[in-house]
Design a protein that fits this description.
Oligomer: single chain
CATH topology of the largest domain: Rossmann fold
Largest sheet: 9 strands, mixed
Shape: globular
Number of helices: 18
CATH architecture of the largest domain: 3-Layer(aba) Sandwich
Distance between the termini: 45 Å
CATH class of the largest domain: Alpha Beta
Helix content: 25-40%
Amino acid sequence: MKTGGFSQIKNLCRKGHGHFLSAFTERTAPKADGQEISLDQAIDRAGEILRKAERPLLYGWSNSSLEAQRVGIELAKKLEATIDDTSSFCQGRIMERILTGRLPTCTLDDVRNFADTSIFWGSDPSNSHPRLLSRFAYYPRGEKRQKSYEEERTCIVVDVRKSATTKLCSNYFKVLPGGDADLIASVIAVLEGKIPKFGDKKLMIELGAILRKTEFGVLFPGLGILSSLTDKMDLLESLIAKLNELSAFKVIPTVEHFNTRGFNKLLLEDAGCINRAFFQGGKAIHGPQMSVSIASKKCDAALVIGSDPLSSLPFGTARSLAKVPVIAIDPHRSLTTDAAKVVIPSAIHGLEAGGSAVRMDGVKIDFDPILTASTLSDVQILGMIKEAI
Protein backbone atom coordinates (compact mmCIF):
# COMPACT_ATOMS: atom_id res chain seq x y z
CA MET A 1 0.00 0.00 0.00
CA LYS A 2 1.06 3.64 -0.48
CA THR A 3 0.99 5.83 2.61
CA GLY A 4 3.00 8.99 2.96
CA GLY A 5 5.58 7.81 0.44
CA PHE A 6 5.78 4.23 1.76
CA SER A 7 4.89 1.60 -0.83
CA GLN A 8 4.78 -1.25 1.69
CA ILE A 9 4.29 -1.73 5.41
CA LYS A 10 5.71 -4.99 6.73
CA ASN A 11 6.05 -6.89 10.00
CA LEU A 12 3.59 -4.80 11.99
CA CYS A 13 0.99 -6.22 14.35
CA ARG A 14 -2.55 -4.82 14.21
CA LYS A 15 -1.78 -2.18 16.82
CA GLY A 16 1.51 -1.27 15.20
CA HIS A 17 -0.18 -0.91 11.84
CA GLY A 18 -2.81 1.37 13.33
CA HIS A 19 -0.10 3.39 15.11
CA PHE A 20 1.71 3.88 11.81
CA LEU A 21 -1.40 4.96 9.93
CA SER A 22 -2.23 7.42 12.72
CA ALA A 23 0.71 9.54 11.55
CA PHE A 24 -1.39 10.56 8.55
CA THR A 25 -4.78 11.28 10.14
CA GLU A 26 -6.39 13.55 12.74
CA ARG A 27 -3.24 15.54 13.51
CA THR A 28 -3.41 18.55 15.80
CA ALA A 29 -2.35 22.14 15.07
CA PRO A 30 -1.29 24.92 17.45
CA LYS A 31 -4.41 26.57 18.85
CA ALA A 32 -5.56 28.88 21.61
CA ASP A 33 -9.22 29.52 22.38
CA GLY A 34 -10.15 27.50 19.30
CA GLN A 35 -8.13 29.68 16.91
CA GLU A 36 -5.05 28.52 15.02
CA ILE A 37 -1.89 30.36 16.06
CA SER A 38 1.86 29.87 15.72
CA LEU A 39 3.71 27.30 17.80
CA ASP A 40 5.64 30.04 19.63
CA GLN A 41 2.39 31.76 20.52
CA ALA A 42 0.95 28.49 21.83
CA ILE A 43 4.05 27.91 23.97
CA ASP A 44 3.86 31.44 25.37
CA ARG A 45 0.15 31.06 26.13
CA ALA A 46 0.77 27.76 27.91
CA GLY A 47 3.57 29.30 29.94
CA GLU A 48 1.31 32.22 30.91
CA ILE A 49 -1.49 29.91 32.11
CA LEU A 50 0.84 27.75 34.19
CA ARG A 51 2.72 30.75 35.56
CA LYS A 52 -0.49 32.30 36.90
CA ALA A 53 -1.91 29.03 38.25
CA GLU A 54 -1.82 28.47 42.02
CA ARG A 55 -2.75 24.78 41.94
CA PRO A 56 -1.67 23.35 38.56
CA LEU A 57 -2.10 19.70 37.64
CA LEU A 58 0.22 17.85 35.24
CA TYR A 59 -1.38 14.65 33.94
CA GLY A 60 -0.71 11.93 31.34
CA TRP A 61 2.96 10.97 30.84
CA SER A 62 2.55 7.25 30.12
CA ASN A 63 2.80 7.91 26.37
CA SER A 64 5.86 10.16 26.69
CA SER A 65 9.55 9.31 26.44
CA LEU A 66 11.74 8.99 29.52
CA GLU A 67 13.43 12.21 28.53
CA ALA A 68 10.10 14.08 28.44
CA GLN A 69 9.02 12.52 31.73
CA ARG A 70 12.18 13.80 33.44
CA VAL A 71 11.46 17.34 32.23
CA GLY A 72 7.84 16.93 33.35
CA ILE A 73 8.92 16.06 36.89
CA GLU A 74 11.26 19.06 36.90
CA LEU A 75 8.38 21.24 35.69
CA ALA A 76 6.15 19.93 38.50
CA LYS A 77 8.81 20.89 41.03
CA LYS A 78 9.21 24.36 39.54
CA LEU A 79 5.45 24.98 39.56
CA GLU A 80 4.89 23.21 42.91
CA ALA A 81 2.26 21.23 41.05
CA THR A 82 0.48 17.92 41.38
CA ILE A 83 1.71 15.32 38.89
CA ASP A 84 -0.07 12.07 38.11
CA ASP A 85 -0.19 9.51 35.32
CA THR A 86 -2.63 7.00 33.89
CA SER A 87 -1.48 4.25 36.30
CA SER A 88 -3.70 5.87 38.96
CA PHE A 89 -6.63 4.22 37.21
CA CYS A 90 -5.04 1.00 35.99
CA GLN A 91 -1.80 -0.82 36.79
CA GLY A 92 -0.43 1.47 39.50
CA ARG A 93 -1.17 -0.79 42.45
CA ILE A 94 0.65 -3.74 40.96
CA MET A 95 3.41 -1.67 39.37
CA GLU A 96 4.29 -0.22 42.76
CA ARG A 97 4.61 -3.71 44.23
CA ILE A 98 6.91 -4.78 41.41
CA LEU A 99 9.13 -1.70 41.52
CA THR A 100 9.49 -1.93 45.31
CA GLY A 101 10.29 -5.65 45.21
CA ARG A 102 7.11 -6.92 46.84
CA LEU A 103 6.31 -8.97 43.75
CA PRO A 104 8.99 -10.87 41.79
CA THR A 105 9.30 -10.11 38.10
CA CYS A 106 11.37 -11.06 35.06
CA THR A 107 11.90 -10.00 31.47
CA LEU A 108 9.93 -11.10 28.44
CA ASP A 109 13.10 -12.76 27.18
CA ASP A 110 13.06 -14.91 30.33
CA VAL A 111 9.47 -15.82 29.49
CA ARG A 112 10.43 -16.88 25.97
CA ASN A 113 13.44 -18.89 27.10
CA PHE A 114 12.24 -20.54 30.31
CA ALA A 115 8.52 -20.21 31.04
CA ASP A 116 6.38 -23.31 30.76
CA THR A 117 3.20 -21.77 32.22
CA SER A 118 1.72 -18.37 31.44
CA ILE A 119 -1.42 -17.13 33.20
CA PHE A 120 -3.43 -14.30 31.68
CA TRP A 121 -5.67 -13.18 34.52
CA GLY A 122 -8.18 -10.50 33.58
CA SER A 123 -6.19 -9.72 30.45
CA ASP A 124 -6.68 -10.46 26.76
CA PRO A 125 -3.28 -10.17 25.05
CA SER A 126 -4.66 -11.30 21.69
CA ASN A 127 -6.24 -7.86 21.48
CA SER A 128 -4.23 -5.70 23.87
CA HIS A 129 -0.72 -7.08 23.16
CA PRO A 130 -0.90 -8.94 19.83
CA ARG A 131 2.75 -10.07 19.80
CA LEU A 132 2.95 -11.23 23.43
CA LEU A 133 1.83 -14.79 22.70
CA SER A 134 3.69 -15.17 19.41
CA ARG A 135 7.03 -13.65 20.45
CA PHE A 136 7.31 -14.51 24.12
CA ALA A 137 4.67 -16.39 26.07
CA TYR A 138 3.28 -19.32 24.06
CA TYR A 139 4.38 -19.95 20.49
CA PRO A 140 8.13 -19.18 20.31
CA ARG A 141 10.87 -21.75 20.76
CA GLY A 142 13.11 -20.51 23.54
CA GLU A 143 16.48 -21.45 24.95
CA LYS A 144 14.99 -24.15 27.18
CA ARG A 145 11.51 -24.47 25.67
CA GLN A 146 12.45 -25.76 22.23
CA LYS A 147 9.17 -27.67 21.79
CA SER A 148 7.11 -24.56 22.48
CA TYR A 149 3.31 -24.73 22.83
CA GLU A 150 3.17 -28.18 21.23
CA GLU A 151 4.63 -29.92 24.27
CA GLU A 152 6.35 -27.57 26.70
CA ARG A 153 4.15 -24.52 27.23
CA THR A 154 0.80 -24.18 28.98
CA CYS A 155 -1.40 -21.13 28.58
CA ILE A 156 -4.07 -20.39 31.21
CA VAL A 157 -6.77 -17.74 30.92
CA VAL A 158 -8.76 -16.57 33.94
CA ASP A 159 -11.52 -14.18 32.93
CA VAL A 160 -15.19 -13.35 33.35
CA ARG A 161 -15.88 -14.26 29.73
CA LYS A 162 -14.35 -16.15 26.85
CA SER A 163 -12.03 -13.66 25.21
CA ALA A 164 -10.08 -13.96 21.96
CA THR A 165 -7.15 -15.38 23.95
CA THR A 166 -9.26 -18.29 25.23
CA LYS A 167 -9.60 -19.49 21.63
CA LEU A 168 -5.84 -20.03 21.57
CA CYS A 169 -5.43 -21.50 25.06
CA SER A 170 -7.18 -24.70 26.07
CA ASN A 171 -7.16 -23.91 29.80
CA TYR A 172 -9.93 -21.42 30.54
CA PHE A 173 -11.17 -20.82 34.07
CA LYS A 174 -14.20 -18.60 34.43
CA VAL A 175 -14.41 -16.17 37.32
CA LEU A 176 -17.55 -14.31 38.28
CA PRO A 177 -17.39 -10.49 38.17
CA GLY A 178 -15.78 -9.37 41.41
CA GLY A 179 -14.99 -12.96 42.36
CA ASP A 180 -11.21 -12.89 41.88
CA ALA A 181 -10.48 -12.77 45.62
CA ASP A 182 -12.53 -15.93 46.20
CA LEU A 183 -10.83 -17.67 43.28
CA ILE A 184 -7.39 -16.78 44.63
CA ALA A 185 -8.38 -18.13 48.05
CA SER A 186 -9.47 -21.39 46.40
CA VAL A 187 -6.22 -21.73 44.45
CA ILE A 188 -4.16 -21.15 47.60
CA ALA A 189 -6.25 -23.76 49.45
CA VAL A 190 -5.67 -26.33 46.72
CA LEU A 191 -1.92 -25.63 46.70
CA GLU A 192 -1.93 -26.22 50.46
CA GLY A 193 -3.72 -29.55 50.01
CA LYS A 194 -7.07 -28.30 51.29
CA ILE A 195 -10.57 -28.43 49.83
CA PRO A 196 -11.44 -25.10 48.20
CA LYS A 197 -14.44 -23.21 49.58
CA PHE A 198 -15.29 -21.31 46.41
CA GLY A 199 -15.87 -22.23 42.80
CA ASP A 200 -16.02 -25.57 41.03
CA LYS A 201 -13.89 -27.84 43.23
CA LYS A 202 -12.98 -30.12 40.33
CA LEU A 203 -11.78 -27.21 38.21
CA MET A 204 -9.85 -25.70 41.12
CA ILE A 205 -8.07 -28.99 41.72
CA GLU A 206 -7.32 -29.20 37.99
CA LEU A 207 -5.83 -25.69 38.04
CA GLY A 208 -3.81 -26.55 41.15
CA ALA A 209 -2.40 -29.62 39.41
CA ILE A 210 -1.18 -27.53 36.47
CA LEU A 211 0.47 -25.01 38.80
CA ARG A 212 2.16 -27.72 40.85
CA LYS A 213 3.83 -29.09 37.73
CA THR A 214 5.10 -25.68 36.66
CA GLU A 215 8.87 -25.14 36.57
CA PHE A 216 8.86 -21.47 35.60
CA GLY A 217 5.56 -19.60 35.60
CA VAL A 218 4.54 -16.05 34.79
CA LEU A 219 1.36 -14.25 35.75
CA PHE A 220 0.21 -11.48 33.40
CA PRO A 221 -2.43 -9.54 35.35
CA GLY A 222 -4.76 -7.19 33.51
CA LEU A 223 -7.31 -4.59 34.49
CA GLY A 224 -9.88 -7.28 35.21
CA ILE A 225 -8.16 -8.68 38.29
CA LEU A 226 -6.96 -5.26 39.48
CA SER A 227 -10.45 -3.77 39.29
CA SER A 228 -11.84 -6.75 41.16
CA LEU A 229 -9.28 -6.91 43.97
CA THR A 230 -9.21 -3.13 44.70
CA ASP A 231 -8.02 -3.07 48.33
CA LYS A 232 -7.30 -6.82 48.48
CA MET A 233 -4.02 -6.80 46.56
CA ASP A 234 -2.33 -8.57 49.48
CA LEU A 235 -4.17 -11.70 48.34
CA LEU A 236 -2.31 -11.58 45.04
CA GLU A 237 0.99 -11.28 46.92
CA SER A 238 0.02 -14.30 49.02
CA LEU A 239 -0.77 -16.32 45.88
CA ILE A 240 2.57 -15.49 44.26
CA ALA A 241 4.41 -16.27 47.50
CA LYS A 242 2.67 -19.66 47.72
CA LEU A 243 3.47 -20.44 44.07
CA ASN A 244 7.13 -19.60 44.68
CA GLU A 245 7.24 -22.19 47.44
CA LEU A 246 6.59 -24.77 44.73
CA SER A 247 8.47 -23.32 41.75
CA ALA A 248 9.71 -20.05 40.25
CA PHE A 249 6.81 -17.70 39.56
CA LYS A 250 7.03 -14.12 38.29
CA VAL A 251 4.64 -11.24 37.53
CA ILE A 252 4.62 -8.95 34.49
CA PRO A 253 1.76 -6.42 34.32
CA THR A 254 0.09 -6.09 30.93
CA VAL A 255 0.21 -2.30 30.75
CA GLU A 256 -1.30 -0.74 27.65
CA HIS A 257 0.62 2.57 27.50
CA PHE A 258 4.13 2.18 26.18
CA ASN A 259 6.01 4.00 28.95
CA THR A 260 3.88 3.66 32.07
CA ARG A 261 6.62 1.77 33.84
CA GLY A 262 9.17 4.38 32.84
CA PHE A 263 7.24 7.20 34.51
CA ASN A 264 6.53 5.12 37.60
CA LYS A 265 10.21 4.23 37.92
CA LEU A 266 11.45 7.80 37.43
CA LEU A 267 9.03 9.27 39.95
CA LEU A 268 9.79 6.53 42.47
CA GLU A 269 13.50 7.29 42.23
CA ASP A 270 12.91 11.04 42.50
CA ALA A 271 9.98 11.36 44.90
CA GLY A 272 9.60 7.96 46.57
CA CYS A 273 6.23 7.24 44.95
CA ILE A 274 5.15 6.02 41.51
CA ASN A 275 2.30 8.50 40.95
CA ARG A 276 -0.01 10.94 42.78
CA ALA A 277 2.70 13.38 43.87
CA PHE A 278 2.46 17.02 44.94
CA PHE A 279 5.66 19.03 45.06
CA GLN A 280 6.01 21.76 47.65
CA GLY A 281 9.22 23.38 48.80
CA GLY A 282 11.26 20.85 46.83
CA LYS A 283 9.65 17.90 48.61
CA ALA A 284 7.04 15.46 47.34
CA ILE A 285 3.82 14.71 49.18
CA HIS A 286 2.13 11.50 48.13
CA GLY A 287 -1.36 10.21 48.71
CA PRO A 288 -4.81 9.47 47.24
CA GLN A 289 -5.72 13.15 47.52
CA MET A 290 -3.01 13.89 44.92
CA SER A 291 -4.62 11.62 42.33
CA VAL A 292 -6.06 13.18 39.19
CA SER A 293 -9.57 12.33 40.38
CA ILE A 294 -9.17 14.54 43.47
CA ALA A 295 -6.70 17.09 42.09
CA SER A 296 -8.96 17.83 39.11
CA LYS A 297 -11.57 19.23 41.51
CA LYS A 298 -9.06 21.60 43.13
CA CYS A 299 -6.73 22.61 40.31
CA ASP A 300 -7.00 25.94 38.48
CA ALA A 301 -5.06 24.82 35.37
CA ALA A 302 -4.03 21.50 33.85
CA LEU A 303 -1.34 20.36 31.45
CA VAL A 304 -2.33 17.10 29.76
CA ILE A 305 0.26 15.26 27.71
CA GLY A 306 -0.24 12.16 25.57
CA SER A 307 -3.60 11.35 27.14
CA ASP A 308 -7.30 11.94 26.59
CA PRO A 309 -8.74 12.20 30.11
CA LEU A 310 -12.02 13.81 29.00
CA SER A 311 -12.97 10.58 27.23
CA SER A 312 -11.12 7.99 29.34
CA LEU A 313 -11.57 9.10 32.96
CA PRO A 314 -14.77 8.89 35.04
CA PHE A 315 -17.38 11.49 34.15
CA GLY A 316 -16.97 13.48 37.36
CA THR A 317 -13.23 13.82 36.87
CA ALA A 318 -13.60 14.72 33.20
CA ARG A 319 -16.23 17.34 34.00
CA SER A 320 -13.97 18.95 36.61
CA LEU A 321 -11.06 19.13 34.16
CA ALA A 322 -13.28 20.67 31.49
CA LYS A 323 -13.98 23.61 33.80
CA VAL A 324 -10.34 24.75 34.03
CA PRO A 325 -7.89 25.96 31.36
CA VAL A 326 -6.36 22.83 29.84
CA ILE A 327 -3.10 22.77 27.88
CA ALA A 328 -3.10 19.66 25.68
CA ILE A 329 0.15 18.36 24.17
CA ASP A 330 -0.76 15.59 21.75
CA PRO A 331 -0.05 14.43 18.18
CA HIS A 332 -3.72 13.65 17.55
CA ARG A 333 -7.06 15.29 17.89
CA SER A 334 -9.20 14.05 20.76
CA LEU A 335 -12.05 15.15 22.99
CA THR A 336 -9.46 16.72 25.29
CA THR A 337 -7.73 18.68 22.53
CA ASP A 338 -11.13 19.87 21.26
CA ALA A 339 -11.96 21.24 24.72
CA ALA A 340 -8.47 22.54 25.56
CA LYS A 341 -7.65 26.21 26.03
CA VAL A 342 -4.29 25.65 24.33
CA VAL A 343 -3.32 22.84 21.96
CA ILE A 344 0.31 22.09 21.13
CA PRO A 345 0.98 19.41 18.49
CA SER A 346 3.78 16.93 19.18
CA ALA A 347 5.66 14.30 17.21
CA ILE A 348 4.72 10.62 17.54
CA HIS A 349 7.26 8.64 19.53
CA GLY A 350 8.83 5.75 17.71
CA LEU A 351 7.72 7.12 14.34
CA GLU A 352 8.62 10.79 14.22
CA ALA A 353 10.58 11.27 17.47
CA GLY A 354 13.30 9.23 19.12
CA GLY A 355 14.04 8.77 22.76
CA SER A 356 13.73 5.88 25.18
CA ALA A 357 11.11 4.06 27.21
CA VAL A 358 10.85 1.25 29.75
CA ARG A 359 8.96 -1.77 28.48
CA MET A 360 6.33 -3.41 30.70
CA ASP A 361 8.93 -5.99 31.80
CA GLY A 362 11.44 -3.32 32.89
CA VAL A 363 13.72 -3.44 29.85
CA LYS A 364 14.80 -0.03 28.56
CA ILE A 365 14.19 0.43 24.84
CA ASP A 366 15.71 3.10 22.61
CA PHE A 367 13.89 4.03 19.43
CA ASP A 368 14.80 6.02 16.36
CA PRO A 369 12.35 7.97 14.19
CA ILE A 370 11.49 6.54 10.78
CA LEU A 371 9.38 9.46 9.55
CA THR A 372 10.33 13.11 9.18
CA ALA A 373 8.23 15.22 11.54
CA SER A 374 7.14 18.81 11.07
CA THR A 375 6.40 19.07 14.79
CA LEU A 376 8.57 19.09 17.90
CA SER A 377 8.94 16.20 20.32
CA ASP A 378 7.41 16.18 23.82
CA VAL A 379 10.76 16.85 25.46
CA GLN A 380 11.40 19.88 23.23
CA ILE A 381 7.94 21.31 23.89
CA LEU A 382 8.18 20.82 27.65
CA GLY A 383 11.63 22.42 27.69
CA MET A 384 10.24 25.49 25.91
CA ILE A 385 7.28 25.72 28.28
CA LYS A 386 9.61 25.46 31.25
CA GLU A 387 11.64 28.37 29.90
CA ALA A 388 8.48 30.39 29.23
CA ILE A 389 7.29 30.16 32.85
